[in-house]
Amino acid sequence: MRIIAGARRGRTLIAPPGNTTRPTSDRVRQALFDMLLHAPWGGRDALEDAHVLDGFAGTGALGLEALSRGAAFCSFFETDRAALAALRANITDCRMKDSTRVLPGSVLRPPKASHPCSLVFLDPPYGHALPAQALAALTPAGWIAPQALIVTETGREEEQPVADVDILAERTHGAARLWIWRAP
Fold it and tell me: What is the pLDDT of residues 39-61, one digit of tens each?
């Protein structure tokens, strides 16, 4: 696993041993960031100088990719100790400590945000309806900027993660399905 593009292109990322963390593959991340950069609802403004939230961060691959491509800052939520160790090592190895904040806790119980995020990644364990729960917690805590792009990865067979939103893009890649929409 590595950073695909940008200032830290080619940098190797580590993942914790075992099956508790399921990092988004390089191929899926490449497809996702291609969509973000080239879709009519995306573009360079979707990434450059963005404040990013990487909920269920695991290795931090999504947030670190966004930073490498020009995002200004990323907040990472993670609960698993081994994943936190890998995340912190990846941030250090990528030399991104000054543009990150690691919150060692659940995205389902976030503290009040110091800055709303315009790009939100939610890549939870599959099959537990966690994206809707996370957004229900993050929104009143001030983490979601108006019109923020929300990117969620679910299992291939899962239904739309949040009802009553207009999906901008939906793509299936192997066992993963990506969903993108704008926050109200």
Answer: 999 999 999 999 999 999 999 99
DSSP 184: -
Beta bridge partners of 176: 155, 173
In 3D space, the residue among 113, 110, 106 whose CA is nearest the CA of residue 148 turns out to be 113
Would you list the domain boundaries of the chain?
26-182
Q: Alpha helix locations (H) across 39-129?
A: 61-68, 81-93
Residue type, 65: E
The dotted CATH code for 26-182 is 3.40.50.150
pLDDT above 80 (res 128): yes
pLDDT tens digits for range 61-83: 999 999 999 999 999 999 999 99
Strand order in the sheet with 117-122: 100-103, 73-77, 51-55, 117-122, 144-155, 176-182, 167-173
Alpha-carbon gap, residue 128 to 122, rounded angstroms:
13
Instruction: Note if the pTM is more than 0.90.
Output: yes
> Is the pLDDT at 24 greater than 90, yes or no?
no
Residues constituting the chain: 184
Count other Cβ atoms within 10 Å, centred on residue 44.
12
Cα separation, 184 vs 178, whole angstroms = 19
Question: In whole angstroms, what is the distance from residue 125 CA to residue 127 CA?
Answer: 7
The DSSP bridge partners found for residue 154 are 177
Strands 144-155, 117-122: parallel, antiparallel or unpaired by DSSP?
A: parallel
